[in-house]
Amino acid sequence: MSADFLYMIEVVINGLMAGVLYALVALGFVLIYKASGIFNYAQGVMALFGALTLVGIMEGQVPFAHIINATFGTDLHQFGWTVPALLAILLTVGVMILLAWMVHTFVFRHLVGQEPIILFMATIGLAYFLEGIGDLMWGSDIKTLDVGIPQGGSLWVENLSSGLGGEDFYGFFIDKLDITASVVAILLVAGLIAFAQYTKQGRAMRAVADDHQAALSVGISLNFIWVLVWSLAGMVALVAGIMWGAKSGVQFSLSLIALKALPVLMLGGFTSIPGAIVGGLIIGVGEKLFEYTIGPMIGGATENWFAYVLALLFLVFRPQGLFGERIIERV
Amino acid sequence: MLYREAGDFKTTYAADSQTFPIRSDRWRYFAVLAIAWGVIPFVIDDYWANAILVPFLIYSIAAIGLNILTGYCGQVSLGTGGFMAVGAYSVYKLMTMFPEVSIVVHVILAGGITALVGTAFGLPSLRIKGFYLAVATLAAQFFLVWLFNKVGWFYNYSASGQISAPERFVAGVAVTGANTAPWAQYLICLAFVTVCAIVARNLTRGSVGRKWMAIRDMDIAAEIIGVNPLTAKLSAFAVSSFFIGISGALFFAVYLGAVEVGEAFGIQKSFLVLFMCIIGGLGSIFGSFAGAAFLVLLPVALKVLGVDLLGWPSSTVAHLQLVAVGALIMFFLIKEPHGLAQLWRVTKEKLRLWPFPY
Amino acid sequence: MKDQVEPHVTADGRRIGGVLMDLRGITLRFGGVEAIKNISFDIREGEIRAIIGPNGAGKSSMLNVISGFYHPQDGEVWFRGAKRPAMKPFQVARLGIARTFQNIALFDGMSVLDNIMTGRLTHMKTGLLSQMVWAGPAAREEAENRAVVERIIDFLEIQAIRKTPVGRLPYGLKKRVELARALAAEPKLLLLDEPMAGMNVEEKEDMSRFILDVNDEFGTTIALIEHDMGVVMDLSDRVVVMDYGRKIGDGTPAEIRANQEVIDAYLGVAHD
């Protein structure tokens, strides 16, 4: 095997790893969309908010320190303690559930029955709101997040593969973090599917996704289910936030990366969990391969737009996505 | 009886379909025009021009443009920033390639070029709808910004990657470049705003506007009563992009003077203009002005309040601004989906009956 | 072959002309389901033609085929003596075929007047540039078409709600506005999909009167779907009966009343 070909494979593998993270964010979209018809643009910002909160709790930061200090003339920054990662994650999960409840109670409960596009625009408002709140609470400087996930290239993979391509090839370089992220993502998806299939709440959730009216008529509380899916989406966002955050720091661009979940959904269809995963992998691999092969010819940084243009072209030819059902229009 | 329509009878259909059918509205409209043209240019100073009036006017054009597409034709676009960039880079290329031609012509041509680009990116709207389309327009946003960033021809291979507007004159007065007087900046923008608003109003009250609104309200029914969705949607994209291109051109040439594409025309700009339409009122020309005014004034007000009065750091105030804008968007969508324009209409209804409650 | 009725004048003095629309062997499938099975019938100039049948018989699908919204897999649609090629709905509208909908399809964000004005769109020709300026052709065209619309508003007695947003109207009035919009197109063929569904007796009487007046005064050919048998038998010149996508009867109301297959379909005799 030639070295070029092997490097191509490495690009594909790294693309798959990135795709797993896209898929993770996209999964949060699918959860909320299926249960409530809301296309949650704020999913990416929720990932950012989750990661910010986690860092803040771990490092014992004082929330809203800037405002408090400016108003009262104090000089608060830290509580002076640090919280172990696991406990901090649990606390952050609590915050995400609280957030889910607030988002539902104060915003979307009042928008039930509105047109999808109105709901969509409301989530853009939510994204702004959350981003601002996150920055106000924890400050907008770039933070490093270390919850103990191993990082750096995996020597094991590198050594194992280095013999494949002759002298020019030094083995695959794959970040341990990416491997961890993939494993976590797979576990998360498996857990969600098990939850949806085997628990009472999961069944209720699927019932609501199928038909609101029918679900109501058998005594399922829509409000409860909606808070539940927002909470689940919040947790998925938190996981995605931890992975991205550990990889490239917790900062605003995280929510932009998470925007890539949108084209992922365009490919995979809004209602399909397998679609979200396959779509994520296609986008991840596609943009890395495009950047590797065509990118250098046209100036690079094609990852900024490749996913969107791909999704756009795809939509023009197959508007319902890969796994979506074809819609017959009626009058 | 501050505001009344009794005794104001219409004898022709033309009189009935005019822009301001009620007499006192008409008077107010002329008063606003008179102040904008006759008073403000003589009293304007640098702070008012740069912080409030010029951005307000330019964003008004962009908001009118997006409102035609989103508010009247129902096609949500998140590509406004990208289209403004097309306007800006078009006017830059035209200004540097044909320095002898008037800047006014350049700005209009830049609008035309943007209309072509916008129409091309509007093509998918024939197949996809709603937020599918919204996300598809993100492709325009990211691709266009990348294009202007990477291809040197667009910024004349300048070392900084920025474009900066050379000095240009209208009737012997500098309107672009470093030596432009605030009143000249203001007047050229006001001229474009006035024409754009009148054109937008004319388009939305006639058969073209009805086609757009029919597509917005129920596209299938619209097609069955004889609206060609292809031409209706694409004409909305073209007209909308034309306005947005003009605003982008003015934003660069008259207001900022020099821009870096990712900073000036990033996705935040797309959202800003969309928010202007939502807060001002979707499907209303007046709402476009109201929304633009509101979102131009909000940061200024917050800065005065937070930084100058309370002494908060300006970064905190910037974050607070995000919170405020986000909260306002959600508030308006819940309480008043038709925005400030609807609040204004309701107030007028009340005034019409005043002092009687019913 | 079908019977060739010569143009004639009815007892109440209306002129029934030649064949306006001829549907030949229409078959429409959705996936594996045949919604319409090889149906042929014609509609004559100036007549009121009813399509009736139990729920799910394929009546609305038939109307959708006529208005170009569905494209049949088999069969031909002849209109005004020429075979109609496969067309988009808006092209069909431009031929002079207007319709109303079973579930009201008005433009909720617009006023009654604007809604009815949309019916004139196929008659309004001024372009974008002319409308930008508004003075001249665009304004003149607007006024001329407004005059046509005002006549229809008078005719349907909805002057008082002209400027009301349609979203605020009660159901019966919405139906009337929808009829007004279809009439505004001055169609050669008017399709009415259950014009009286969900109405009370008075509203039905009003609507029947309007339908008869439209047919009488403008000579408009009307094809309508309706469930109220009394109304259908009173209004229509000829009736097509559909059941499970097949045509089971075609003729004058008197003939239909006597048709055993139709009686069976309505009384629910088991299908083998």
TrEMBL record, chain A:
Source species, domain of life: Bacteria
TM segment ranges: 6-31, 38-58, 78-99, 111-130, 179-199, 220-244, 264-285, 297-317
Membrane-related topology note: Multi-pass membrane protein
UniProt-listed InterPro entries: ABC_transp_permease, BCAA_transport_permease
Location(s), subcellular: Cell membrane
Keyword Cell membrane attributed: yes
GO molecular function: transmembrane transporter activity
Sorted UniProt keywords: Amino-acid transport, Cell membrane, Membrane, Transmembrane, Transmembrane helix, Transport
Gene Ontology CC terms, in alphabetical order: plasma membrane
Gene Ontology BP terms: amino acid transport
Primary site of residence: membrane
Pfam families: BPD_transp_2
Family assignment from sequence similarity: Belongs to the binding-protein-dependent transport system permease family. LivHM subfamily.
Name the record gives this protein: Amino acid/amide ABC transporter membrane protein 1, HAAT family
Species: Loktanella fryxellensis
UniProtKB/TrEMBL annotation, chain B:
Membrane-traversing stretches: 27-44, 50-69, 76-95, 101-123, 130-148, 183-200, 236-259, 271-297, 317-334
Membrane topology type: Multi-pass membrane protein
CC terms in the record's Gene Ontology section: plasma membrane
Entry-linked InterPro entries: ABC_transp_permease, LivM-like
A Pfam family of this chain: BPD_transp_2
Annotated keywords: Cell membrane, Membrane, Transmembrane, Transmembrane helix
Compartment annotation: Cell membrane
GO-annotated molecular function: branched-chain amino acid transmembrane transporter activity
Recorded superkingdom: Bacteria
Listed name of the protein: Amino acid/amide ABC transporter membrane protein 2, HAAT family
Species this chain originates from: Loktanella fryxellensis
From TrEMBL, chain C:
GO molecular function, one term: ATP binding
Pfam families in UniProt: ABC_tran (PF00005), BCA_ABC_TP_C (PF12399)
GO CC field: plasma membrane
InterPro entries named among the record's database cross-references: AAA+_ATPase (IPR003593), ABC_AA/LPS_Transport (IPR051120), ABC_transporter-like_ATP-bd (IPR003439), BCA_ABC_TP_C (IPR032823), P-loop_NTPase (IPR027417)
Keywords: ATP-binding, Nucleotide-binding, Transport
SUPFAM superfamilies, per the entry: P-loop containing nucleoside triphosphate hydrolases
The ABC transporter domain, residue ranges: 21-269
Source taxon at top rank: Bacteria
Entries under PANTHER family matching the protein: ABC TRANSPORTER ATP-BINDING PROTEIN, CONSERVED COMPONENT OF ABC TRANSPORTER FOR NATURAL AMINO ACIDS-RELATED
Annotated protein name in UniProt: Amino acid/amide ABC transporter ATP-binding protein 1, HAAT family
